[in-house]
Amino acid sequence: MGIRLKGKAAAVVLVVALGAIGYRGATLGESDDPQLRRAIQGELLNRLGGRIGEDLSGITVDDINSETLGRLLGRANLAEIEVHSMKAAHPILSWASEEEVVVLVEFSLPEAERDKEYWLFDHSAASGWRYRRPANAISYYLSVI
User: What is the pTM of this model?
Assistant: First the structure.
């Protein structure tokens, strides 16, 4: 047993569904916010620092030579942190002064493959954009709050 709609009721449901899908599509997309880009770069820099820390923890004094230092400096090249794209999913229903946004970030770190991740950021007038936690594709496409 299921719901069966006919005639005008089916047309209304179809129009509402298409409108919701269209509106969701309008709230997704490439972001050109320079403050959000800086927050993303800061998070990537933090991640890069963690990788370098892992490398340093495995090095003894006897291991230090020009090759080891060259490899570490290569991994620490901040100019090679690249944000290829950042697509923000703004909430459908948001009237608050603090906004949560799920961002699909495509990036590259030095000596690493290009990667794509979903991250949750929030924004307030007082603090700007702040990284909160990893997110997922479901929260990106169905962000409603």
Answer: 0.67
